[in-house]
Design brief:
alpha/beta; eight-stranded mixed sheet; 8 strands; elongated
Length: 316
């Protein structure tokens, strides 16, 4: 088998307008570094003609390999699929929309050769909608709380990983992976490189506000016990409030200063406690659902077709 120096893993969804330019710019950039590279394009069941374009590029250049998933698994699952097939000493991930300039790859590679496990491109100026920037800020703070991420490290989808780190990541078979979380759970030997972040020229972002919220919730539930700790704290606080109210009522009754009896306060307290209990059941239910998913061995991805030789692990 030919030695592969660099693997570039790119999840593709509605990328038909950008794929040919992306390939041309990637090829020109990588050929200045090495001839031993591969570009792995993972079609995440895109509804446009992305797969046909990917196949055309593959026929022109066998260094471009493709995987077509059986359904839309999401960006992170698609990247995990690519990781399972990537052979390079260094594995690069990037988006398919050309907001990550391929020409910046050299900067990432130069930095990781200093001995880091991963180097993440830090956009000099993000060209995202405001809500995505806010979401990125909140997720970044969550990374710091959950994994102890250094304050000065910024995460993004434009990154280069060492071969050893990729091996550690693909050992995790959760059906709900989050690549940044898996990186941080394995290493904090990270570095940033400032890179350009271009304006989106084709289509619109596939990340809606609801998807950003879901990503944040998945991070909290899949990789931390913070929600359960919040429930425990709420239980303690409300139990303490109930105890203090009980002492107050008894003291007022014994002193004869108890006001006119009524049900308003009782009903209000019952409503609050009932709401807290139902919310607690919902959070615990989220954990149980994910445990069931792990035990039932839900797939990270299922492959419909690919340019790779068929293997036993085509379903991750």
């Amino acid at each position: 088998m030919q030695q592969v120096d660099i693997s570039v893993v790119i999840p593709v969804y509605k990328g038909s307008d950008s794929l040919k330019e992306l390939y041309d710019r990637l090829k020109d950039t990588l050929e200045k570094i090495t001839q031993n590279f591969e570009i792995i394009l993972i079609d995440d069941c895109s509804p446009d003609h992305s797969l046909n374009i990917i196949k055309e590029i593959h026929q022109q250049d066998l260094r471009v390999k493709f995987i077509s998933l059986m359904r839309n698994f999401g960006q992170h699952n698609a990247i995990m699929c690519g990781f399972n097939y990537a052979q390079g000493d260094y594995v690069i991930t990037m988006d398919d929309d050309l907001q990550n300039p391929p020409e910046e790859i050299m900067e990432l590679l130069n930095k990781i050769k200093e001995g880091f496990d991963a180097v993440i491109g830090r956009p000099k100026e993000k060209k995202h909608a405001a809500y995505r920037n806010v979401g990125s800020f909140l997720v970044g703070k969550s990374f710091k709380v959950i994994f102890g991420k250094p304050e000065d490290i910024k995460m993004s989808s434009f990154r280069v990983l060492s071969r050893e780190l990729v091996h550690a990541i693909i050992a995790v078979k959760t059906p709900n992976p989050m690549v940044d979380a898996l990186i941080l759970s394995n290493t904090l030997n990270l570095a940033n490189v400032d890179v350009k972040h271009d304006e989106r020229r084709f289509g619109k972002s596939n990340y809606s506000l609801s998807k950003s919220i879901k990503l944040a919730l998945d991070l909290l539930v899949n990789y931390s016990t913070i929600p359960l700790r919040v429930i425990s704290l709420n239980g303690f606080v409300f139990a303490l409030i109930g105890l203090l109210l009980g002492i107050y009522v008894i003291a007022m009754k014994l002193s004869g200063a108890f006001p006119v009896e009524g049900w308003t306060s009782v009903i209000s307290l019952l409503s609050i406690f009932s709401g807290v209990i139902m919310m607690s059941f919902g959070v615990v239910g989220e954990y149980l659902a994910r445990i069931i998913g792990e035990v039932a061995y839900f797939r990270q991805f299922s492959i419909k077709e690919s340019s790779f030789t068929r293997r036993n692990d085509e379903e991750g």
